[in-house]
Amino acid sequence: MSLPPEKITELKQIIHSQLNQMDIQNRIRDILSDTIQQDFMGQSGKVGEEELLHKLKQQGLVDDILHQLQFRGQQGGTTPATHFLDRDDKVTQLPTKKVNIDPTRRYVYFQIKGGKAFLEHIDESDPMPGQVSSFFMFHIYFRGQRFKSRPIPCACEPQIDEGFLLELHKESSGEAGKMADASTMLSISDPIHIVLIKTEASGETSLVSSNFFEWRTVLASSGNRMSMMLELKGTGNESKVPCGVIEIMMELFPKSTKNFGQDVVAAQISLEKSRQAERERLFLVYAKQWWKEYLQIRPAHQDRLVKIFAQDENMVNRPVNSFVKPLRGGRLLDSARHAARFVSLIHHEKVQSLGGGSKTEQWTNAHAFLCRNKGDCEDHAILLCSLLLGFGLDAYVCVGTKSKGAVHAWVVTISIEGTVVFWESLNGHRYIHLPIDPNAPPMDKQHRPKYPYKSIGCVFNHVSFYANNQPSDSVEVCKFNLKNEADWKSMSQDAVLSVCGPGASLAWPSMPPLCCSSLDSALVSNDLEQQLRVMVYEHRRDLGLTTNFDDQLSYLLTPALAAYELERVTGISAGNEEFQDSIKQAVPDGHTFKGYPIQFSHRNAKRAFATCLKSPVCEEIINCRGDHVRLGVRVKVYPYPENAIATWIMFACKYKSVL
Fold first, then answer.
1. What is the pTM of this model?
2. Could you say which DSSP state residue 261 is in?
3. Can you tell me which residues the record assigns to a coiled coil (predicted)?
4. Own/partner pairs for 127-135, CB < 8 Å, 24+ apart?
5. Is 123 left (phi over 0), alpha (psi -120 to 50) or beta?
6. Among residues 643, 642, 507, 641, which one has the least CA distance to residue 193?
7. Tens digit of pLDDT for each residue in 389-405?
């Protein structure tokens, strides 16, 4: 069966990356060197290929390669975020039933066997060989462990058959290495978060379902093994509507020596829910009283954007503080500015209400947001604030409006010295905020702010909530001395922590660790560059023009792309002098050079080329006519966590100027 070019490229990249990680070339070289010295020394003639291959098999090298390719990604465990096994969807085509289990740990084997009643796809037929169709992908998150399934073609009854090994590890100091006993397992109230993502043939993704599954029923089942049908609900406005049913199977390894009755497990779950409901009720009572006091300060406060509660993708009302949690990027992100760059590369999309009209407000859980790789400004701001908190900054999510009055969310950090910096999560820009004094004499020179924000209603993070208490909610005159009760009305931290603190509301998931990118930058950059060269050649051919690419000119564009990405991350431009000097030496006297750089957050060659042609400057370069015309194109893909990418493309040409 034929595959599309992008899938072939990804498959090559997976094999290449796997062999590099295993240091396969050095191992082959060592084995062959020892073999020739020991077994073939003194023999005349050449050593046959079959003999060498036989020696490699004897040494177990071939078995090691097959073992790694087959079982990599099947093991869960307490690996840190920087070493997450993000199971690549192209590696999981073969069914793998065996996994290595540490006998000193306890696991739940969670299997999704098949699906039924996905009625939206009742008319979808099997795709033709080589045809790219829409597909499902299941993402699983449980206690710091993340997995994803292979791509599953969309159907009314999809064939899933995917299993995930989830470790039931303890978190208390000194106890993390011990096997969880029966009472400990009963107290682990973290649900299994099942996220179902649909990817269209065009590459567009949508969140189909986000389900928090209570796994502890397996503790009361016979032999610690159970099967059941789980109904998946939709998201947003369709959160009460079933979107499909999946058959799941769970099994405990090793089996518990103590079995609980169903009434014991049900009582434990009911007790936890009642405790959480009581905490939420008390917080709601406090929040109502707090809001009443806030309105008594100034009648205009009624119209300010003070957001205490928000709805998630399942239409569950939660305090906004519960969405934010400090998140460390491990070794995947080097600085706060790298974090801002990473978040800005996640696609932005507003959730539209059914039937059009204004957008629907929906704050997505972080795991679902990362799995979909797309979300609204609130999702971006929450993720960026969590990462900045992880880097030790005093960061808050701001809720207000932009210059045209649209509701918006961004991030603010406040230094010890009082420096206030706005971070725009959608593009990574930073703005230093200097408030304008409204009482200053009119003759004083007032600076004009560069940021696009108009008003601000409140700021919050995982432990604090402040409502703007100043006479005006305009950002230009806003002071960010949050400890000043005259300017900001704060909520009690104890009240916030009672529902948002560690272990307070276990039904709300923790912030998932980031997964490293599975992309090989050099491989995908070269593949995209070759695709663009073909498109340029065909485009010029249709115009009756010949095409000559200058490989040296293309290579010289690389430093410029590196400088552009460095500037996006750090705000510092470097290397421009060397780039200009190299171009001047490569372009002969009497010739003209033109270049056009552009950046995308995807690697779809057709979309990128169509966008470039809309620019008059780029169109002039690609359609260049003249004497001694030479074209250049360079692509550099910068990978970030969660397979977010910054794709830089630069088209250039040099030609002899004719007066």
1. 0.82
2. P
3. none
4. 127/153, 129/1, 129/2, 130/1, 130/2, 130/3, 130/4, 132/4, 132/7, 132/201, 133/201, 134/198, 134/199, 134/200, 134/201, 135/198, 135/199
5. alpha
6. 507
7. 999 999 999 999 998 88
